[in-house]
Give the backbone structure.
Amino acid sequence: MLTDGQVIEHTKKWILDVVIGCNFCPFAAKAVKQQTIHYQVENSADSISCLDAFLNEAIRLDNEPNIETIFLIFPHSFAVFNDYLNIVEVAEELLIEKGYEGIYQVASFHPLYQFADSHSKDAANYTNRSIYPMLHLLREASIDKALENYKDPEAIPGNNIDFARNKGLLYMKMLRDSCL
């Protein structure tokens, strides 16, 4: 059984090697360098406990302004992608219900991530294929500030898809899997 520390180290390696290494998020390197990322492991397999953990992380952002972004990692939950999509939907609804709309935003990453209308073997899916299911909680104000200084942010997803497809499925899978 993996320790929380091992799960966090795997996640950090994935962020460095894949997210930053492939430039999938041009803003991630700054957050890593400034050490403004919090990593939280939730070991429960119970959806309610996982959602409680998600809300606790939103409260952490409320109380700790030095944290820009949080990765809530579920190493033992949501192995089935559709189950994961359900938890993402509920998490987004909770943000609205708890008054966090426009304050925090959720990004989603999963080992079996698949974009709508894409094939499971499309290398583009690796732009969001992480090593564990996780919810990435971000401050919207920080996103807005970063985008002010970034030329053509609308091109980021297309550039990421092109990069992954050019590298190919085998490369993207090996790169991601090497983080474990």
Remarks:
- Helices lie at 4-20, 28-33, 47-63, 81-97, 140-148, 156-167, 169-177.
- The longest strand covers residues 104-109.
- The chain has a mean pLDDT of 97.
- The radius of gyration is 16 Å.
